[in-house]
Amino acid sequence: MKYSIKIFARIRPTKKATGSYEIGTDEDTPKLTFIIPRLASDGYVNNKKEVFTFKFTEVFGDEVKQDQIFDTVARPVIENCLEGYNGTIFAYGQTNSGKTFTITGGAERYSDRGIIPRTLSYLFQQYLKSPGTVFTTQVSYLEIYNENGYDLLDPKHEASKLEDLPRVALFEGSNGEIHLKNLSMHSVTSEEEALNWLFLGDTNRMIAETPMNMASTRSHCIFTIHVTSRESGADTIRKSKLHLVDLAGSERIGKTGVGGALLTEAKYINLSLHSLEQVIVALSEKSRSHIPYRNSMMTSVLRDSLGGNCMTSMIATLSIEKTNIEESISTCRFSQRVALIKNEALLNEEVDPSLMVARLQQRVEELKQELVLATGEERTDELTDEEKSSVRSSVTEFIESKEMSYLSFNPPDMRKIQLAFQILKETILTERQSEKDSSSHLLKKEREGEGDSNSTGNVSNVEMKRLQDMVHQRDEELNALLKMFKQEKKLVAEREKLLKEHSIQWTERPKSPRLGRTSPLSTSSVPSNLATPSSTVTTPPSVTSVATPINDKRALIRAELSKARQLAFDNYRRNIADTALLDQHKDTLKKKYSEAKDLGEQVNKSRLHINQLKTKLDKLKLTRGLQDNHQEDVSVSEENTRTALEEEKTEFKKMYTRLKELKTEIEHVQHLLERAKVQLQRDFDHWWTTQNSSSNSSSSSPMASHEEGESLKLVKPVSETISLVRDTRANDDIVAFYKARQKMTQKLSSK
Ligand SMILES: Nc1ncnc2c1ncn2[C@@H]1O[C@H](COP(=O)(O)OP(=O)(O)OP(=O)(O)O)[C@@H](O)[C@H]1O
User: Does the C-beta of 14 come closer than 6 Å to ligand 1?
Assistant: First the structure.
């Protein structure tokens, strides 16, 4: 609240001749008027009187007693102090004007008690009227003498010299507040206890005699009462302080007529009062931004009381003897300036930290109990080792599982959730560091020309190397098979050429599909591994060696076959023979060729894809080794490529296996087909022989008949031999080939 400093005037009773003054009112405002006649000593006749009028909150005449002063001046300030507002009452006036009498009181009568003892008494009375509020009271007593502070309430120095008292030092806090070091604060719980401290302080007050007044004080004394109040159940406390100030005499130094040490004292007194005047003047002028509080210790201590957070009242004590009128007028002038000062008193209320802590602790306990009720489990501050281990397992499972989309704890436990986050963070950081270390190590190796990923010892690099080796191995395997396939194809072409050259009139051949030579497996679209796996049957020499005697015989056979026999075979096959089994084998073979062809194309595509993935993997490896940035992106891409490569290889293996199965199946059907053909040939031979022998009268010449008979006999072993040769090629059985050759030779020689 805004508060103008209230000023009161108090006239000390005197038995001496007084100057002329009047106490009155001006529009209900109390006023004090001094009337001073012109002195004849001025050297000229002057009947004019000078009148000085000063307005006050109240003017107390010399008859006014201490109790009225207390009620009017002090009580309102004390009431506010009990509410939590700071207050100051100070007495200002020349020496012997009654300042000490007003603030502390006279020693002669109980009724002469001043504001301080009455305030203490009043406070403890008021405490009793508020049983719901806890009050604590502390007192301190500071004397400022020659700009030095002394603690008047030091119990060890009762009645000692002032210089022996503890020195009080001023220091300023970070927020600009003035603090007093070494000024003792004493808690008091009763009026009597408080008055005992006041008595001790008064005893310790330095009293020096001056020519002006033997009992005058030349120091400033500040008795401070600190009141703290807290209503029961409230978290807040209110703190206020009440300064009761007895200033040194304000008389001018020239009038004191002193010298030496006393002059020094007077100078200091004037200095501090001058500082007080400067502060008052500065505060009364609104335009002034700087207030010179620091100019003296007294103004520093009273900083809050003048222009700050305080309700302040001033009592101007006046001596109205004729000789002191000028000083009285001076005191009144000073008070008029003080009246212009506006303070802003604030309620000093703050949260009690200890209460707040206690209340929060109680709340924590209540919440813990609620938690026990809600979860059915009592929690300690720390998770047990078992619980920590469980959380770690849950987090690991969460990371590794593709199906767990969230991590939960039942019942919910914030400690476990926090631990889970901590574990996740540690995992991520460890992984990042590991990748970083691996990358930098690999880069270093490559720079040193040792780009062997195996030497890194890193698991992922070893795996990559293994896959690369596997791909390389598969490549070599494919190349070897392709080479074999080409050789086989060349062999087939040579055989076909031979057959064409000799134009073997193999009766069923012109119309039957030449399965052994037109096999889809022989096309370029089929992987070479299907042609003759492991048959390094580099058969050309064998075939060549076999082909020569065969060719000779074939030429012989061809010469022997007659047109009639060929026609007879065609007729036999179309109209007499049972070719259902033969046709069935052909059909089965055709279907399997078709399946093999499609599968062969897919295998080729898969092989191409594997090569592409391998190239991509190499590039990613290089990128990962050279770049620190985007490590995660590269790693993910690399991982995806590896996965795709593995999947493609798995698919390739499946197709490869199926293709091998098809090869076996085709070979089997081929075998059955050949056998069916041989059987057909045998049946025709038998039928032909029967027909020839039964007719007995052949239109053909004996020679012709002989030729046809020979050719018939020879057809069988030749076709059988060719079939066996094909079987050998299909089954990669070189031994079977030679056996067949030997068999054919034996048959030929026996014929
Ligand atoms: N209102 C009063 N009624 C009766 N006696 C008074 C009154 N005022 C002052 N006196 C007496 O006048 C004398 C001087 O008063 P006091 O010591 O209070 O003056 P002072 O202003 O404190 O002087 P100093 O500046 O030297 O301390 C004392 O003996 C005191 O008892």
Answer: no
pTM of the full predicted structure? Answer: 0.52
Above pLDDT 70, what percent of the chain?
71
Place of tokens 């029967």: 690
How many degrees, rounded to 5, is the angle at CA 371 between CA 370 and CA 375?
125
Average pLDDT, integer, range 70-93: 94
| Mean of pLDDT values over 622-626 | 72
- The CB-based long-range contact list for 28-34 (8 Å cut-off, 24+ gap) reads 29/55, 30/55, 30/56, 30/57, 30/58, 30/59, 31/55, 31/56, 31/59, 32/56, 32/59, 32/318, 32/332, 34/325, 34/328, 34/329, 34/332
| Nearest alpha carbon, ligand 1 atom 31 | 106
pLDDT band per the 50, 70, 90 thresholds, residue 190: very high
212: CB partners within 8 A, 6+ apart: 95, 96, 249, 251, 255, 256, 257
User: Is pLDDT above 70 for 480?
Assistant: yes
* 728 band by pLDDT with thresholds 50, 70 and 90: very low
Query: Does 98 show up as a binding residue in the annotation?
Result: yes
Index of the ligand 1 atom closest to the CA of residue 64: 1
More confident residue, 680 or 44: 680
User: What's the sign of the alpha-carbon dihedral 335, 336, 337, 343?
Assistant: positive
**pLDDT (average), residues 247-272:** 60
Pocket mutation for ligand 1, best pick of 8, 10, 11, 12 (most atoms within 8 Å of C-beta): 12
The angle, 0 to 180 degrees and rounded to 10, between the axes of the packed helices 325-339 and 260-284 is: 40
The reply to whether CATH 3.40.850.10 applies to domain 64-308 is yes
C-beta 412 within 6 A of ligand 1 = no
Residue 415, classified by CB atoms within 10 Å of its CB into exposed (0-12), middle (13-18) or buried (19+), is middle
DSSP 360-408: HHHHHHHHHHHHHHHHS----SS--HHHHHHHHHHHHHHHH-SS-----
Q: Would you place residue 505 in the very low, low, confident or very high pLDDT band (cuts 50, 70, 90)?
A: very low
Q: At 97, is the pLDDT very low, low, confident or very high (cuts 50, 70, 90)? A: very high
Instruction: Check residue 452 and give left, alpha or beta (phi > 0: left; psi -120 to 50: alpha).
Output: beta
Cα 95 to middle of ligand 1, angstroms: 8
CA dihedral (120, 125, 127, 132) in degrees, to 10, reads 180
**Segments in 627-701 forming alpha helices (H):** 631-695
Tokens of 356: 């707040």
- Helix, strand or coil, per DSSP, at residue 68: helix
Contact criterion met (CB below 8 Å) for 124 and 217: no
User: Ligand 1: which of 73, 90, 100 to mutate, judged by most atoms within 8 Å of the beta carbon?
Assistant: 100
- Give ∠ CA 74-75-76 in degrees, rounded to 5: 95
Q: What are the residue ranges spanned by the domains of the chain?
A: 64-308, 353-447, 459-750
Q: Which residues contact 652 (CB under 8 A, 6 or more apart)?
A: 603, 606, 607, 610
210 lines ligand 1 (CB under 6 A): no
- DSSP code, position 524: T
φ, ψ of residue 12 in degrees (nearest 5): -80, 135
